Every structure is written in structure tokens, then in C-alpha cells.
Amino acid sequence: PGDEPWVVLDPLDGTGNFRAGLAPWAFSAALVREGRPVAGLVADLSSGRRWSGAVGSGAYRDGVPVRPRDAGTVVAPTAPPGSAVQVPR
After folding, report:
1. What residues contact residue 3 under an 8 Å CB cut-off, 6+ apart?
2. Residue 63: CB partners within 8 Å, gap ≥ 6?
3. Among candidate residues 61, 65, 5, the one with its CA nearest the CA of residue 33
């Protein structure tokens, strides 16, 4: 509620894959402040790879800096009622 930061968790992103014994499946988490995502982590539990990023700190895969591909796709979750998630262009 209000301006309190909150965390979005998906403890088993890829549940269908996990149940079928197919990779990938992952743990995903994001920190949202004032309706905007400010940090995130995806840990692919099937391979051990990790992606992380934070506003002002950049993004990393397994500790190596990465950047989005040109013309990449952004998938944005639905915000909780009364809130908004802003997606950059």
C-alpha cells in the first residue's frame, strides 16, 4: 500500500516445464518501488544460470554484464489493483 516497496516472486517460473521434466524452469523475483521495477533476479534452476539487474547498476548474466538486443520484447506483469508498472520504451 502507498509508496512502500514490494517484491514480486515467482518461486517456480515454468511450472509446466518442471512438471514435464523439461528445461527451463526458474525462480524469479523483482523489487518494485513506486510502481516501477527497480531490481530483479532470475535463477534458472535447471541450468544454474542467473540473470540480475538493478536501476543504475546494469544487468548481468552469471556476473558478466549484458544488455538487451535491439528490438527486443518486453513482457510486463499486471500491477496490483490501484498500482501501475511502467515499462520503458
Report:
1. 33, 34
2. none
3. 5
Tens digits of per-residue pLDDT, 16-51? 888 888 888 889 999 998 888 899 999 998 899 999
What pLDDT is recorded for position 55?
92
28: β partners: 10, 42
> For residue 53, what is its C-alpha cell?
539487474
- Which residue type occupies 50? R
Kindly compute the dihedral angle of the four CA atoms of residues 82, 14, 39, 86, in this order, to the nearest 10 degrees: -40
pTM: 0.68
Return d(Cα 51, Cα 89) in angstroms, integer.
Answer: 21
